[in-house]
Predict the 3D structure of the following.
Amino acid sequence: MSLIGDGFLTIFSFVFLISIVVVIHELGHYWAGRFCGVHAEAFSMGFGPTLFSWRDKRGTVWRVAALPLGGYVKFLGDAGAASEPDADKLAQLRAQMGEAADRCYHFKPIWQRAFITAAGPIANFILAITIFAGLSLTLGNRELQPVVGAVVAESPAASAGIQVGDRVVAIDGREVRAFNDIMRIVISSGTSELSVEIERDGTVIPLQMVAARNTVEDEFGGSRRLPQLGIQAFSEPVIGGIENAGPAAQAGFQVGDRIISIGDEAVVSFQQFSQFVALAVDAFDVGVERGDQVLSLTVEPRDTPEGATNVSPAYARLGMLSAGRFVEYRRYNPIEAVGYGIGQTGAVVSTTVDYVTNIVTGRASPELLNGPLGIATAAGQVAQRSIEGHSSAFDAARALLVNLINLAGVLSVGLGLVNLLPIPILDGGHLVYYGYEAVARRPLSMKAQALGFRVGLVFVLGLMLVATWNDINYKLSQWF
């Protein structure tokens, strides 16, 4: 795709994601306010100049703004994010508003104000559950099984004794159902010591290991430092594709051949075979099963082509592809789908909380925090990956929509959690204020609220600075 096309796709995907998660967040506040009898003066989708607006029968102005980077709902009497009125200010406000005070946010009971505030993050969690449940119900779920296909030499997994064919069943007491669960838990745990349970020949074996931080290059040319155990997902050693006129084709390999040995060494997985190919210097003999026959083929690997450093060595040096990874496909009934949606949302919450906790304790690096630029980059990459390899525009559009909606579910959980942080100017900070008010039986003073706002603003700006720095570093790693 052209540079202009990539840029348009990235912008479209980013606006699509942000619009969904932010609008749902603000609708959570809005509907909770309506339930509690609070009048909403305005609901804005985006910031900046108004593109168009309308007023509904309840007197709420709905507006669509030029910058789709957020949104807000303004309730009657709401002065902004900086503070809540103290007792004196509330008395003045009630006198000014008269009967309208009954519809004012600030004169509602504490539990109602807390409910309205928490409703935004709650709406994000409900959205995530709905997305994950809906996708699993309509499309089912393809889970890459947590079976080890290769162990990197001198890695934490190799040192701990993990072998090809082992199945990871739990990490730190958390069940592992898919290979992605391993990556999620390891990345969020940073350099913490991990208790890993693996199943080998029907026996569960407990192991201890600490992930190593490695620089990992992705398919888009960018690199990040990620904690890794040094294992790869399992693929059957069956050939799924062969490059025309490549070394594998010239040696006589065919699609469907099962690789059973390299010389005298048995081959268990395609990754194990690919690891050998990466280090091979001269021609070598490969034993394959083809139907009822066992054949011995000799192949001479070529030098790795320029620009092929991020693909399988078996493809780069032999022109040979695996038939696919070990994937289990599941269908869900409506009840199971809801359970799956709740479980996936809980997994994202757990991962995020663990990661933030490990940042605070120094066991994880904050370099994986992303800001708007990082979210836009991820959205564009998901979109590009979605539309590649489809024979029709319909299939490409369908894959794009499904993957963006799934990413919206993950992003929605993140937005909900961030807003629950106990930081003034965020929803969590207001909940802290209401907790104080419930105990002290009076609002926090305006002076204390103003101080809290300034501290919270500095913290949030600092967090955004770190996230933006990470985003820029990633983009630089793509270009240089």
Observations:
- Residues 146 and 181 are 8 Å apart (CA to CA).
- The two ends are 21 Å apart (CA to CA).
- The mean pLDDT is 87.
- The domain at 141-234+325-330 is CATH 2.30.42.10 (Pdz3 Domain).
